[in-house]
Amino acid sequence: MKNQYLTKFVFVLFVLAFGISCYYYGKTKDLKQQLEAQKIEQQNLMNAKSVDGQELTQIDAMIIDGDDYSGALKAYQEKFGEDEAMEGTELELRISLTKKLLQLKARPEKDSAQLAQMELLDSLKTLADVSPKEIQQFDSLSFVLEKAKARIARMQRQLRQKSSGQYLTFSNSKGSQMHYVGEVKNGKANGFGVAILNTGSRYIGEWKDNERHGEGSFYWHDGQYYVGAYKNDKRSGKGTYHWPNGEKFVGLWKDDERTGEGAFFGKKGDVVASGVWEHDELVVTNKP
């Protein structure tokens, strides 16, 4: 008799254990399926960002390479209409800046401007691939799933909010108003960015505290342009200054003046004068 009760008791325990195991197995399997879905969603988000970045770069090229502001504005607006997820961010920023470029182009001999550079989103860490062997893994998978959801939410916010750069307006040391798109730190232009002046000129390059600082290129509305080093918002270091007629100066600069070794080239590329310069004047001429 006792053996029968014992057998029944053991059988009941076995059924309960089996039921609990099945429950956790089912839950764990469901969590794994959700994890796989999260992985797919992450990949889709990354692909969406890549496609959007390529499309926007192609539209940007209409401005940078061809001065087609009207065509670029139309393309941005069409893209804005089909991609509501990016509403209020980089597309609006590009549309706003393109409109400013159109206003500047209404003045004679105004150049085009590059709008912005894409900064990269943080990459997602690889999700753990856990097999449903033990009940304890249920809690582990739950934690991984919640972490994955948080990362996807963060990525979605970045995709909606994080554009190629932030937009600022400020005045330079000469009093010209600048419309800036690029990297920002402490509320100022720091890092790489593009600025369009109200004079129609533009600067593309490195910044420090709202000043041109590092390598960059400055284009005047009359066709002159400089490519080289800047320091404290002035041409300083090695750089090349080009004139519309083909002439150029290659050499050292300090405080916006030719200072140090340098050479002046004519329209055909021949050296017209070379030597040591001081305050924009050739003071020591190199012998032929």
UniProtKB/TrEMBL annotation:
Gene3D superfamilies: Histone H3 K4-specific methyltransferase SET7/9 N-terminal domain. The keyword Transmembrane helix applies. Keywords: Membrane, Repeat, Transmembrane, Transmembrane helix. The chain crosses the membrane at residues 6-26. InterPro entries: MORN. Pfam families: MORN (PF02493). SUPFAM superfamilies: Histone H3 K4-specific methyltransferase SET7/9 N-terminal domain. PANTHER family: RADIAL SPOKE HEAD 1 HOMOLOG. This is Uncharacterized conserved protein.
